[in-house]
Amino acid sequence: GRTGHGGETQETHGARRRDAGDARGTAAYGHGPEGLMNDPLLRGELREGNPAVEEFLRICAVCNTVVPAEREAEGSSEGNNFWASSPDEVAIVKATAQLGVTLVERSGSEVQLRVNGSVQRYEVLDVLEFTSERRCMSVIVRDLQTGRLSLYTKGADDVVLARLVQGDPMVDGAVNCLQAIVYAESGLRTLCVAMRRLDEGLYKEWSCKYAEARAAVHGVGAVAATCALLERELQLQGVLAIEDRLQEAVPETVEMLQRAGIALWMLTGDKRSTALNIAKAAGILPSQSTLLHVQGGTEKEIELSLHDALAEAETQDTSNTPVVMVVEGSCLDAIVEEQPHLFSQVALLVDAVVCCRVTPSQKARISELACQCGQREAHVGVGLSGCEGLQAARAADFSFAKFHCLQRLLLIHGRSAYQRTCFISQFCFYKSLLLSFTQILYAFSSAFSGSSLFSSFTIMAYNVVYTSFPVLGYLFNKDLQDSTMTWKMTWNMGRADSALNDNTAQSWLSSALLHAIVLFSIATNSPEGLQVDQETQGITSASCIVWVQSLVLLIEGDRPGNIATALDVMPI
Question: How far apart are CA 88 and CA 159, in angstroms?
Fold first, then answer.
């Protein structure tokens, strides 16, 4: 049989590692401590010109949208620079270049490769682009040396393996699947690489159908169906696996968020085995976790699976053993449309949710459902400026480069913002009600004569001058140190709405009324024999109100109250 090949390379920034494995035999390269590039067995195959190895590397170098650029400096040891929308494709092309198959030039429809020193030219006739529904991409190329037509395909293993030619003695389906599972269990995203030889008549007939499908007004489904006509009877060439390396401090950040009582949802397009290993590496799925699998081929099976998961979640003690729900992407559409309430019940009982094989449209719908599970609307979006593109980061309210920044954003800045907003909003109502209640009490004592206890200047300056400085000073309040804000009990104040609820609102309202009664009594009850006019009562009441609201802020608002009181003395 043919001898396959494997590979492992790393991007120049060290963010990802690439592994490729044999799909047609049992040989695999790059698994030893010396790595792929120094694997003596692979180097020997390359020196001997193994056709299976060269064919696999050739497909990887051509089946992409990478554009090579010139070297930045003459004599640079890093070789060509490559540009593409996907960093995965760039890393794969760099790996093939280090193994002797280099993408030299892509001009128009022509692609040039350098294979062990010799130049090979190919004409790209059509590019069947990758979509989240198809989960594969293909190119139709013509070898300009031989004139031979070929279809090169790479994509998700379950998609490609389902389209292989039947009865091919060179393909052992069990070995193929086993190789993909081995990579998946290591936390790698597996891709299968395949090809098909085409004849001119078949291609011309298909090309007319493809042009009609692309020209249709609503031709998205027609294009996919037309691509499927050609992407069949494939011959498997190998397995390619991609590892998305985690940034530093990701497991520590996830652990801290979980300690704060935050439920984590992981939505990924990877298959279940890969998604679970990534979740373990990120700390979302501890080793002692209980898994609740939600799967099924029909709506009835999915509903039964959800009921089983709910029954098991209700019997689990999440304080001792974390419970994680794992949902297959094929079930998500039925869950969102038919069983959202049942799904929400299970999600509220578990510590984390892992959704695999999720399309971008499903991610949007699941995100909305996750907000409904928390009984809150999402007001803030956070994006990471990583290698996968900047679309999410540009559309987000907050954007940063490192995942561990999320810990400080939520546990420190988020808690402080919540605590300050709740206090300031209620305090502003309090100080306004304090002045209003005093005026109402004066209306009763003056038999509703219509006269005002306070002068127009006092009313105007009350919010603009007398009480504005305390509010501005409180913006710098920090009731706890950063090290203590990561404790679960400090974070739970926001989840429990302990700083802003009906009880706190009634407390501020009662305080404003009580303080107004006391202050008005002091201002109007003069010593015997001393006549106090209305203007004196108004100035006395206003002064007492300013001092009392500053004292309340000093007591309730911790350190900034000292500054607020000092600032209030100056206008008085």
Answer: 19
